[in-house]
Amino acid sequence: MDPELLEAMRLYSEKDWRGALGVLDGLASTEANHLDLAYLLGLCHARLEDWDEALLFLEQVVTASEDEDRVNQCRLSLAYVYAMTGRSRLAEYELGRLVNSGFASTQVLSALGHTLWKQGRADDAEKAYAEAVGTDPESATALNGLGYVLACEGKDAARALTCCRKAVDQDPDNAAYLDSLGWAYYRLGFEAEAREYLSRALERAPGEAEIREHARSLSIPLPPDEDSRS
After folding, report:
1. How far is CA 92 from CA 26, 52, 84, 111, 158, in A?
2. pLDDT band at 102 (very low <50, low <70, confident <90, very high)
3. Which residue in 4, 86, 82, 83 sits closest to 37, CA to CA?
4. What is the mean predicted confidence (pLDDT) over 43-64?
5. pLDDT one-digit tens code per residue, 204-219
6. Which among 6, 22, 104, 110 is most buried, taking Cβ atoms within 10 Å?
7. Residue-by-residue DSSP string for 134-175
8. DSSP state of 31
9. What angle do CA 165, 171, 174 make, to 5 degrees?
10. What is the pTM (predicted TM-score) of this model?
11. Is the C-alpha dihedral spanning 56, 141, 112, 181 positive or negative?
12. So what's the pLDDT on residue 226?
């Protein structure tokens, strides 16, 4: 492997994505290194939220690589990019390919639950999140997702609350988890507890639209968001 590729891999592993990209941008593409280069370029651009560039390179790997693990990683990254750019059906497609190929990890199932929820498919989202929890009962991401869906749908209130509380216990400063727990309390009619957790979520992520919407439901004062400050 080219020394430049090895250096870029080292920088990527250290989360120096711009540094890795700088090394890769100076490396000529050849028949021998084409897919290795596309793979690292795609991952770096995804990390830096250069969505169009990320898609360009990740799709090359998915189309041409014979390395199953690498293809699976790129499919997961593609799903992330699609989800972040509002293309939920394309995200679902990539995640479905992973599940059908036997790559149904907790991470993949949780991501699938999220994209199904974004499409308004609550029952399917619940099923995906439940499978994710079944795969790893301690996954905070899966627990939070399942708890939130159940709370929003008014299903199994006790389980919804338990799932959300377990997620917060694992990561007490995570704004999304605090929001889900606050919303679960609100849906159960426990306004004081809901106010406590939603206020904490708002402190940590004052610009998050969904958290602000939930806070409004309890008339919690909202800090100015970024748009109003500019």
Report:
1. 35, 18, 12, 9, 29
2. confident
3. 4
4. 94
5. 999 999 999 999 999 8
6. 110
7. HH-TT-HHHHHHHHHHHHHHT--HHHHHHHHHHHHHH-TT-H
8. T
9. 95
10. 0.81
11. negative
12. 53
